[in-house]
From TrEMBL:
<dbReference type="InterPro" id="IPR038740">
    <property type="entry name" value="BioF2-like_GNAT_dom"/>
</dbReference>
<keyword id="KW-0808">Transferase</keyword>
<dbReference type="GO" id="GO:0016740">
    <property type="term" value="F:transferase activity"/>
</dbReference>
<protein>
    <submittedName>
        <fullName>GNAT family N-acetyltransferase</fullName>
    </submittedName>
</protein>
<dbReference type="Pfam" id="PF13480">
    <property type="entry name" value="Acetyltransf_6"/>
</dbReference>
<dbReference type="InterPro" id="IPR016181">
    <property type="entry name" value="Acyl_CoA_acyltransferase"/>
</dbReference>
<feature type="domain" description="BioF2-like acetyltransferase">
    <location>
        <begin position="157"/>
        <end position="274"/>
    </location>
</feature>
<dbReference type="InterPro" id="IPR050644">
    <property type="entry name" value="PG_Glycine_Bridge_Synth"/>
</dbReference>
């Protein structure tokens, strides 16, 4: 039986045990991560004798008196996660029916890539839009992975080394946040609220506590110029956050750090998830490392009353008209 549970009803020990044992489990679905990025999150849970068999986190909110479901910061994919063989295939239809029943407005709720096959057959009934990320399978020695880089990436990697960039691991996330505030935040319509940066600080602190993250900086003559944060969970390394100043961008600091992490995990059998955004130039930057497109699906639904829908549509048109062209956030 599938139950809709509010935050106070959840057994977080059972929840995390299910995420850990499931094939689909991702770091941002762990209870401590959800507590940071979506305090008070709800969930759908299939349980048997008190054991959670299948779960689906619901980072919802309420606005204008209507329940809303959507993505959380620093969390590309959520979705259905199960310890049952073929669990998602068996319950996907029931989970989507429950989700759409509880939330009148759903915007861009993104399912893990492992859910894609189970959800494709449900596209005629639901607004499931295709998206993709970039994966690089780290199952070969570094030399073979390097051969998969395109010509420009190899050239820019050589430039980074000639520029005298030095890479070091760090436990201080503040320089990277400062890079973002100074060089990226002004490109975001409406800016970025301070609580969003605090989320990142809290996530990084928990990653360090659980030994699930690595933070690297590149520098020249001791001056930092770019930072990259990577998460490590259940055989996947994820490119969680990055930022650079003008020197770091021009000297290809992030290219050098990405290459270093690929080198460290070569032949491990891990998957590198670039968490590619829907920005073509950034996606092509990730593709230059030999990373392949992997599809996932995002759920949408708008059953808000007509006047509310019209107001929202007008606001979205205004947002798109004002939204600047962000260009390339990574090195080219």
């Amino acid at each position: 039986m599938i139950r809709y549970l509010r935050h106070h009803q959840l057994d977080k020990a059972q929840w995390d045990a299910c995420i850990e044992a499931s094939e689909e489990g991702v770091l941002c679905a762990l209870s401590w991560y959800l507590d940071i990025v979506s305090p008070g999150w709800h969930a759908l849970v299939e349980e048997e004798n008190g054991r959670y068999l299948t779960v689906m986190p619901l980072p919802g909110s309420s606005k204008m008196g209507f329940s809303r479901l959507g993505p959380s910061y620093y969390c590309q994919q959520l979705g259905i996660m199960s310890v049952k063989p073929g669990g998602a295939d068996a319950v996907a239809a029931a989970f989507l029916a429950e989700t759409t029943r509880h939330f009148r407005f759903i915007h861009n709720y993104k399912f893990v890539t492992e859910n894609t096959q189970a959800l494709l057959q449900l596209r005629p009934q639901y607004q499931l839009q295709p998206r993709h990320t970039r994966y690089l399978l780290l199952d070969k020695p570094y030399a073979e992975l390097y051969r998969g880089y395109n010509r420009d990436r190899k050239m820019n990697l050589k430039r980074a080394k000639r520029a005298g960039l030095v890479i070091a691991e760090s436990e201080d996330i503040e320089p990277m946040i400062s890079f973002f505030k100074e060089h990226v935040e002004h490109k975001v319509v409406g800016g970025v609220a301070e609580p969003t940066y605090q989320m990142l600080r809290d996530i990084f602190a928990k990653m360090r506590e659980h030994r699930m993250g690595q933070l690297f900086y590149s520098s020249i003559d001791g001056k930092l110029n770019a930072g990259c944060l990577f998460a490590n969970y259940k055989g996947t390394v994820s490119y969680t956050f990055n930022a650079a100043d003008e020197v770091g961008r021009v000297t290809n600091g992030r290219t050098l750090m990405l290459d270093e992490v690929i080198r460290q995990y070569a032949s491990s059998g891990f998957t590198f998830d670039f968490e590619s955004p829907a920005i073509e130039q950034i996606d092509q930057f990730y593709a230059s490392f030999g990373a392949k497109q992997v599809q996932y699906l995002a759920l949408h639904q708008n059953k808000l009353p007509l006047p509310v829908r019209l107001i929202r549509d007008l606001r979205m048109k205004l947002y798109r008209a004002l939204k600047p062209n962000r260009g390339v956030a990574e090195e080219e």
